[in-house]
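PROTEIN DESIGN WORKSHEET
SECTION A - STRUCTURE
LENGTH: 457
TOKENS:
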């Protein structure tokens, strides 16, 4: 018995020694794992520890996560077959516009330099906001005989082609700032390919860059579905400001066109142009359609963001908004709905009766005016070439010509001033959802030094 007892004690002693050896080997690993788990827990959930009320440690607040913007459904018709303009669609406000095409040297001014936008006086500017028969500045102003061209010069053959267009999709690339994004052919019906002009304006620098990448116009001047038109003698050193000419002044460039669609060069068209007209204009009984901004809804937010990201010279932005404030633009104040030019149209329904001079009870046809924001995402514009649409486009261009090229800063002021000065004359604006814009045009980044051209589609 003694033998077995001693043997058992000896066996138990050996097991304890083995356990102690394993513990000493693995203990540091377990302690390290426990500390690591504790650290992870505290970093995610935080902890507050107080010592006699003097010391406190807590996890800093998380930064805001970036919003993720996605497309939404756009209920286009299935086909362009039998698609016709609705009867009486064009019965909007009617008046006649003509444009100043030439300026003479003022008697009191010995130093005169012709400008593409002309030399508009404050009195001319103020009068141009009236929706009535008038002659106004709207780009393409030439100087006296013997003076050089003010710019945006086109070949006569291109002008002849543009004069035949009735429905236009246009875009531009100046300063080689973007790749050429070809419209998705499979999304555009054969009828539209034959009857809609798709025009891409390029400067010579951009054309040379695209050609070096293998994108060369064919004998008829096409790259894919785009009809390439080369612009010479750009009127502004700022390429962004030059880009506002085809963006806003399609009624000046395509003088026979009834409709135009503008798409920024950073986007690829993925829907049929005629279906776009039907959905955004005809179905909504609108003459101008532009999407609201995906993030900002008040122009004062847009001002701060432009400064924060150094999108433009801060002094120039301040000068522009001092002028707008002197003309009545002010930040919206819910306690003072009588402000003459409230800048936050997200509250526009409060002011409909006063500014638009019609009772809310008859707002059925205008209901979309009561809910939109005053900062557009201006990369996609659909419009009929009606008098009010053409006037608004000229006025908006003149603001960009006079001030900064950041057109989102001048949109609300231009729209509200036009409304205020024309009570009883309605401008039918459809400010649609940004997610709809994303559904019909795919967004890309601008060209950078290390980026590569996209494959032909």
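SECTION B - SEQUENCE
RESIDUE ASSIGNMENT:
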């Amino acid at each position: 018995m003694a033998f077995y007892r001693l043997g058992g004690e000896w066996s138990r002693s050996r097991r304890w020694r083995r356990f102690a050896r394993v513990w000493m080997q693995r203990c540091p690993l377990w302690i390290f794992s426990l500390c690591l788990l504790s650290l992870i827990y505290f970093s995610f959930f935080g902890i507050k520890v107080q010592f006699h009320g003097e010391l406190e440690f807590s996890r800093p607040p998380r930064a805001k996560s970036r919003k993720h913007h996605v497309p939404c459904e756009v209920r286009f018709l299935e086909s362009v077959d039998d698609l016709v303009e609705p009867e009486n669609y064009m019965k909007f406000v009617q008046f006649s516009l003509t444009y100043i095409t030439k300026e003479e040297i003022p008697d009191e001014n010995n130093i005169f330099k012709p400008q593409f936008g002309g030399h508009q006086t404050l009195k001319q500017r103020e009068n141009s906001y009236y929706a009535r028969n008038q002659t106004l500045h709207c780009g393409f102003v030439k100087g006296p005989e013997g003076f050089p061209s003010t710019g945006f010069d086109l070949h006569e053959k291109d002008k002849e082609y543009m004069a035949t267009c009735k429905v236009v999709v246009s875009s531009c690339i100046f300063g080689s700032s973007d790749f050429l994004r070809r419209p998705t052919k499979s999304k555009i019906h054969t009828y539209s390919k034959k009857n809609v002009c798709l025009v891409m304006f390029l400067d010579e620098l951009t054309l040379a860059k695209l050609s070096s990448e293998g994108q060369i116009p064919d004998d008829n001047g096409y790259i894919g579905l785009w009809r390439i038109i080369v612009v010479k003698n750009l009127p502004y050193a700022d390429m962004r400001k030059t880009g506002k000419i085809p963006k806003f002044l399609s009624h000046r460039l395509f003088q026979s066109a009834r409709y135009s669609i503008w798409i920024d060069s950073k986007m690829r068209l993925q829907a049929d142009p005629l279906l776009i007209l039907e959905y955004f204009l005809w179905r909504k009984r609108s003459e101008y359609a532009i999407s609201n901004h995906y993030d900002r809804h008040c122009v004062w937010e847009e001002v701060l963001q432009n400064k924060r990201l150094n999108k433009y010279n801060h002094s120039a932005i301040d000068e522009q908004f001092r002028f707008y404030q002197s003309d009545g633009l002010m930040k919206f104040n819910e306690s003072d709905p009588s402000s003459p030019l409230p800048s936050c149209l997200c509250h526009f329904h409060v002011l409909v009766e006063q500014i638009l001079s019609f009772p809310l009870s008859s707002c059925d046809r205008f209901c979309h005016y009561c809910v939109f924001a005053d900062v557009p995402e201006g990369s996609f514009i659909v419009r009929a070439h009606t008098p009010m649409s053409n006037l608004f486009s000229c006025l908006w261009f003149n603001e960009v010509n006079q001030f900064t090229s950041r057109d989102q800063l001048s949109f609300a002021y231009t729209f509200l001033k036009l409304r205020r000065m024309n009570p009883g004359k309605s401008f039918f604006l459809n400010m649609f959802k940004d997610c709809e814009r994303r559904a019909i045009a795919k967004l890309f980044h601008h060209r950078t030094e290390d980026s590569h051209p996209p494959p032909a589609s």
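SECTION C - NOTES
The CA atoms of residues 105 and 337 lie 45 Å apart.
Residues 2-45 form the longest helix (44 residues).
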